[in-house]
Amino acid sequence: MQLILRSYDLPLRHTFTISRQSFDVKPSMIVELKDGNISGYGEASENPYYHKTLENMFQDLQNCKEIIEQDTDETPEEFWEKMYPYLKDDMFALCALDLAYNDLYARKKGKKLYEIWNYNTNHNPLSNYTIGIDTIEKMVEKMKETPWPIYKIKLGTKKDIKIVRELRKHTDAIFRIDANCAWTADETIANAIELKKLGVEFLEQPLAAEDIEGARKVFLESVLPIVADESCQVEADVTKCHNLFHGINIKLVKCGGLTPARRMLKEADEYGMKKMVGCMTESSVGISAIAHLLPELDYVDMDGAMLLKTDIATGTSMDFGKVIYSKLNGTGVKLTDNNPKTIVE
Questions:
Q1: What are the CA-CA distances from residue 17 to residues 14, 135, 141, 180, 305 (Å)?
Q2: Among 128, 165, 272, 324, which one is most buried in terms of CB atoms within 10 A?
Q3: How far separated are the first and last CA of the chain, in Å rounded?
Q4: Is 107 helix (H, G, I), strand (E, B) or coil?
Q5: Does the pLDDT of residue 232 top 90, yes or no?
Q6: How far apart are CA 345 and CA 25, in angstroms?
Q7: How far apart are CA 134 and CA 16, in angstroms?
């Protein structure tokens, strides 16, 4: 098995702004695992909030290249357990590796990944489309540019309710709100009352992850369900979120890939919590992996590749929120950009 690392700069259609940062380009790492003439692909993009850079991810994978490249017939679960001790301090790199191995494993079996897991895709949830923070006029313009059944609206400004009221004038779509840790507990409780009137389905991570007392108060008093994101990063966090949140939003890069994500979904199910998987700004490589978890989910946010000006791969696509799977096996990815910024073989 051969490890190949590539990096790309992914340009966005619009400047993407959330409560703590803005960007126009997202650097991303693509991991390829090649076995003979079959390859599997995974991805992890840079993230300053989690202190993850391409340089560090490249180095962490290069440090265990010899172990990665050993010939093996291990299941993805066995491979993840083998690699975890070497990459436990870099979940982003571990995620990209895990995605690539899952993809490769399913392709070698001649199946799509969801078929390996015996999932039924007939009742998959629809994906939302994200509207980043901007002027109200620009946010309305972005929404009109992409008519969609469900929108995730990024908030964390001094005019949050005004924004949602204005957006509501232009669509009957479901709204989901992501404040990215920008609100206080009292703000959240008050905002929830107004937002519920405006057709909002739930609030995602309104408080800072360390505000446990605030989360407890919001959980008990909010008229809208609260979904954890920054508060639910790795497997151990699911238990911590129980009775503080009504659901969890798993990000594959934060927890270390598809393999631990499936365990987290099972645990959330046992607690009776709503289950969601979200994306970062990433190409169709990362997005296509998420698609295979859909049968396990209540909600999904997998619009990352749609926010790009140009994609570097093909895979799953979307039709008004509905995911269309690729005809290819594995996660269905095909790398289409053969001019990476860097490549290490």
A1: 9, 11, 15, 11, 16
A2: 128
A3: 12
A4: helix
A5: yes
A6: 25
A7: 8
CA 250/CA 266 separation, integer angstroms: 12
With b meaning 16 or more CB within 10 Å and e meaning fewer, what string describes 95-122? bbbbbbbbbbbbbeeeebbbebbebeee
Identify the structural domains of the chain with CATH numbers, from first to last: 2-115+336-344 (3.30.390.10), 119-330 (3.20.20.120)
Q: Are 300 and 273 in contact (CB under 8 A)?
A: no
Strand, helix or coil for residue 151: strand
Q: Tens digits of per-residue pLDDT, 242-286?
A: 999 999 999 999 999 999 999 999 999 999 999 999 999 999 999
What SS3 class is residue 90?
A: coil
Cβ within 8 Å of residue 200, ≥6 positions away: 164, 175, 176, 177, 192, 224
What is d(CA 276, CA 112) in angstroms, rounded to the nearest whole number? Answer: 21
C-alpha atoms less than 13 angstroms from C-alpha of 29 in its C-beta half-sphere: 28
CB-side neighbour CA atoms (13 Å) of 269 = 10
Question: What is the distance of C-alpha 28 from the center of its chain?
Answer: 14
Is residue 309 within 8 Å of 12, Cβ to Cβ? Answer: yes
Report pTM: 0.96
Residue-wise DSSP of 306-325: GGBSS-SEE--EEETTEEE-
Phi, psi torsion values for 58, nearest 5 degrees: -55, -45
Total length of the chain: 345
Asked whether 29 and 60 are in contact (CB, 8 A), the reply is no
Q: Which residues pair with 344 in a beta bridge?
A: 5
Integer angstrom CA distances of residue 342 from 29, 99, 271, 333: 9, 20, 44, 20
Between strands 322-324 and 317-319, the pairing is antiparallel
